[in-house]
């Protein structure tokens, strides 16, 4: 039940279900048809298009930039979209039925088709070069949930096959299908910066015919996101002098490394390779690297949206309670939930939101 308070709408607080005002800034800017898309995530590139995640949905646009079209609109969140080698399909991780599974859909839009069905979270990793199979990471057979293993599943569906390496997070299959470049562990989603320690990942090459593996980066830097292009292995690393995440290349024939980008302001994040380009995040923008010239440029991205996610709305936070305490009389308790501080009666009475600040977070009462 909502009631007016000043110039905003707040939600009534009920003992059975805590609610807070979440989402929108109260001083809204004028509505525009197009939004300059920032803070987009996990882009992927084909010969003609770029797809990316924005607001939990997958969007697609021309490779050189422009206005993006939203492909998905389900309540669940999509992540890690990847174009098939011919660009006709997009495989991704979708949380549609209460669990993260791998789905595939036409790059022109359509109904997503589910490929994995395990209750563990499955993360889309890469396509096989022939476009007939997909590589994904999952803890489904791991001894603990602290690490994943790599699996192969046909794009038509069926039982996934576990790859022989004991651990695997991100990977790329060489064009001949014989060699797999992979990470046994990954820190891409960590908040660590310039980390040097035992968890710093290296890139390994696994011979799928001989069953042998070797560490090709073998340093104390953070190496990530391997991507094959012919005999060159591109990857992300902060091994440079400024210790920022940049793109590097390993020539497997010459056994030589070279630095491809040299950004010093923000780290390159989540690069993805296509037939002739690498697309990646940097700061709050998206960039495209031409493999032929080695030149990177920022890609302008515009969205057409109703900004519905920015509207103030009531949010049930009963399942987000953390950090509590009991009053001296024992008649009320105090809790943190979604950045606000609430007091709750021991028996009868009102739940009170003491802070009521949708734009700030209060913790540990």
Please tell me about this protein's structure.
The chain is globular. The protein is mostly beta strands and 365 residues long. 0% of the residues lie in helices and 45% in strands. 35% of the residues are buried. The two termini are 27 Å apart. Strand 5 and strand 6 form a beta hairpin. The strands form nine sheets. Strands 4-29-8-7-6-5 form a six-stranded mixed β-sheet, with no helix packed on it. The protein has strands at residues 2-5, 8-11, 19-22, 34-36, 41-45, 49-54, 57-62, 66-70, 78-83, 89-95, 100-106, 113-114, 123-127, 133-138, 149-154, 161-162, 171-173, 179-182, 204-207, 212-215, 223-229, 232-237, 246-251, 256-259, 268-273, 277-282, 285-290, 296-298, 301-304, 313-316, 321-326, 332-337, 340-345, 352-353. Mean pLDDT is 89; it is low at 1-31.
List the helices and strands and how they pair.
Blueprint: E1 2-5, E2 8-11, E3 19-22, E4 34-36, E5 41-45, E6 49-54, E7 57-62, E8 66-70, E9 78-83, E10 89-95, E11 100-106, E12 113-114, E13 123-127, E14 133-138, E15 149-154, E16 161-162, E17 171-173, E18 179-182, E19 204-207, E20 212-215, E21 223-229, E22 232-237, E23 246-251, E24 256-259, E25 268-273, E26 277-282, E27 285-290, E28 296-298, E29 301-304, E30 313-316, E31 321-326, E32 332-337, E33 340-345, E34 352-353
Parallel strand pairs: 8-29
Antiparallel strand pairs: 1-2, 3-30, 4-29, 5-6, 6-7, 7-8, 9-10, 10-11, 11-12, 13-14, 14-15, 15-16, 17-18, 18-19, 19-20, 21-22, 22-23, 23-24, 25-26, 26-27, 27-28, 31-32, 32-33, 33-34
């Amino acid at each position: 039940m909502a009631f007016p308070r000043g110039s905003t709408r707040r939600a009534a607080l009920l003992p059975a279900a805590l609610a807070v005002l979440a989402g929108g800034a109260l001083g809204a800017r004028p509505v525009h048809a197009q939004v300059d898309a920032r803070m987009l995530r996990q882009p992927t590139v084909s010969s003609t298009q770029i797809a990316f995640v924005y607001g939990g949905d997958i969007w697609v646009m021309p490779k050189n930039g422009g206005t993006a079209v939203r492909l998905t609109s389900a309540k669940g969140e999509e992540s890690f979209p990847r174009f098939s080698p011919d660009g006709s399909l997009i495989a991704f991780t979708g949380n549609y039925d209460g669990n993260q599974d791998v789905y595939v859909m036409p790059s022109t839009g359509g109904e997503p088709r589910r490929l994995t069905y395990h209750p563990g979270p499955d993360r889309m990793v890469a396509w096989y070069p022939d476009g007939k199979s997909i590589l994904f990471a999952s803890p489904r057979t791991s001894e603990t949930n602290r690490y994943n293993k790599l699996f192969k599943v046909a794009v038509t569906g069926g039982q996934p096959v576990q790859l022989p390496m004991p651990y695997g997070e991100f990977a790329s299959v060489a064009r001949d299908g014989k060699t797999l470049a992979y990470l046994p562990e990954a820190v891409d989603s960590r908040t660590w910066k310039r980390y040097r320690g035992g968890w710093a990942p290296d890139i390994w090459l696994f011979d799928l015919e001989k069953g042998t593996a070797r560490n090709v980066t073998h340093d104390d830097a953070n190496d990530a996101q391997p991507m094959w292009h012919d005999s060159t292995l591109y990857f992300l690393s902060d091994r440079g002098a400024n210790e920022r995440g940049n793109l590097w290349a390993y020539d497997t024939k010459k056994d030589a490394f070279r630095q491809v980008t040299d950004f010093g302001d923000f780290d390159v994040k989540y690069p993805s390779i296509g037939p002739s380009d690498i697309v990646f995040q940097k700061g709050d923008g998206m960039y495209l690297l031409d493999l032929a010239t080695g030149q990177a440029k920022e890609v302008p991205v515009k969205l057409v949206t109703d900004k519905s996610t920015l509207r103030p709305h009531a949010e049930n936070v009963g399942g987000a309670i953390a950090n509590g305490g009991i009053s001296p009389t024992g008649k009320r308790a105090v809790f943190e939930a979604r950045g606000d501080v609430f007091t709750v009666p021991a028996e009868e009475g009102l739940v009170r939101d003491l802070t009521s600040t949708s734009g700030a977070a209060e913790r540990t009462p």
